[in-house]
Amino acid sequence: MNEALKLARSAFHEDEVPVGAVVVHENRIVGRGHNQVELLRDPTAHAEMLAISAACDTLKQKYLQKCTLYVTLEPCAMCSGAIVWTKLDRVVFGAMDERAGGCGSVFNIAENKQLNHQAEIIQGIMEQESKKLLKTFFEKKRK
Fold first, then answer.
1. ∠ CA 116-29-132 to the nearest 5 degrees?
2. 97 near 73, Cβ under 8 Å?
3. Which pLDDT tens digit goes with each residue over 36-64?
4. Which is catalytic among the residues 14, 26, 48, 98?
5. Is 16 a catalytic residue?
6. Which residues contact 5 (CB under 8 A, 6 or more apart)?
7. pTM for this one?
8. Beta strand pairing status for 20-25 and 28-34?
9. Residue pair 33/47 in contact by the 8 Å Cβ criterion
10. Half-sphere exposure of residue 42, counting CA atoms within 13 Å on the CB side?
11. Torsion-angle region of residue 15: left (phi > 0), alpha (psi -120 to 50) or beta?
12. What is the pLDDT of residues 96-119, one digit of tens each?
């Protein structure tokens, strides 16, 4: 989660919503990403999506079984869909996203028994650090 927070700080300094994500396989980071929505002018360029794509490329496979996604903010519905489609085993996140969360707060896509895969969800890891970074970013934007 420390690596995800470092990436979130990079996003902050690039004037992107400060979210960072890493995919870990066998205790090794195989994918990294931070939000690049503004830079790429792409609403799908979320930290999780970029980390998942990088992990698939590194592992040379479309499924990420035996992998864990660490992310500073609860994944949205789009990213939660990608979690299901790539068959990630586990998602560990910091802050809940009360407006758009897809792993328990608004929706629970990643654990939905009606879908073909469910990921284990662990929330609240380094939550305060994640929340503080997001709060600082949005306070700065409002000024």
1. 90
2. yes
3. 999 999 999 999 999 999 999 999 999 99
4. 48
5. no
6. 20, 72, 94, 126, 129, 130, 133
7. 0.96
8. antiparallel
9. yes
10. 11
11. left
12. 999 999 999 999 999 999 999 999
